[in-house]
Fold this protein.
Amino acid sequence: MISAFAPGRMELIGNHTNYNEGFVLAFAIQFGITIHGEARSDDTIVLHSPEFGEDKFSIQHIQKNVHAPWSNYMKGVLLELQNMGAPLGGFDAEITSTLPSGVGLSSIGAIEVATILFVQKLFPFTFGNMEDASVRMGLAQMCRKAENDFVDIHCGILDQATSLMGRKDHAVFIDCRFDSVETIPIPPEMCFVVCDTGVTQMLLSSKYNARRSECEEAVRLLQLNGQEIKALRDITPKKLQEKSGLFSPRVFQRGMHIASENERVLQAREALLQHDVEKLGQLMYESHESSCHAFENSTSYLDMLVNIAKTLPACVGSRLTGGGFGGATLSMVRRECAEGFVNELTSLYRAQSSKEPKAYILDAADGAA
């Protein structure tokens, strides 16, 4: 029996910067996706998951299944492997998850990464030395391409790269233009709490793609004005403000969020290197304000959680995490106070919202294996 595990991830700071060729800080977590199974003698693939459901198809005829959309992410990876000439065959696979649902912990990225590692172990081919960072980044790029091309979700590299390149007790700093990674120690006295609002994310993929289109429109208008830029990574908030007359108010706000968020990520990287948790926490709060007012991917429930967290002494910083439009917040808290923080946060939120939150204490974990 062959098995592979891929962790989920948390975005520490860098909201929607990844597909704008910008910067992001994230970390792999202790929860994830496990695939275990064995090869078959025919070309049939049978996928089963107690969390997601079932799917069955031929390796020779890979098509989307609207009734099992989770399997499309695996199928996209299989097609990419076929395109590179990997000798694939049929197999039976059981997919299990320890990732809490609806909390933005990137189960999709983890499924893609677990798939590519599982299939590589199952069939006789190799990608190279898995200790080599460039090999792991190559796998992340392949998973991203599968999601972009087959599933038609125009994601960046954040989820897959963090799942593959996470390191215990370290944050992962990603330069999304050059797909380069640096790991930076997280102060040991700090841990993280992710808290689900209890509100389902609505129309996430369409809103995600809309925000991406608005960012691309900002770049197009800047290029028409003679600005030599490839992405919003290439412009500062000050320069964007000078060009504000080029844009509709909405497109300007989207661009301003990305430009300022990239600056916050670079400052957050420096704060981690300097062990300055107070500065990092302040940047997290600023990131949330920008997501709320400029990128408009927050909700009243996310804002409520951040505002409550800000009143609790254990909390150093808090913000929405992931795509937004519902989902969860991430708070950085003092480790010795983490359990008390969880109890206070969920109790106060429950009283104010009448929603049932779920909170989890997280630490940075190693990447996929």
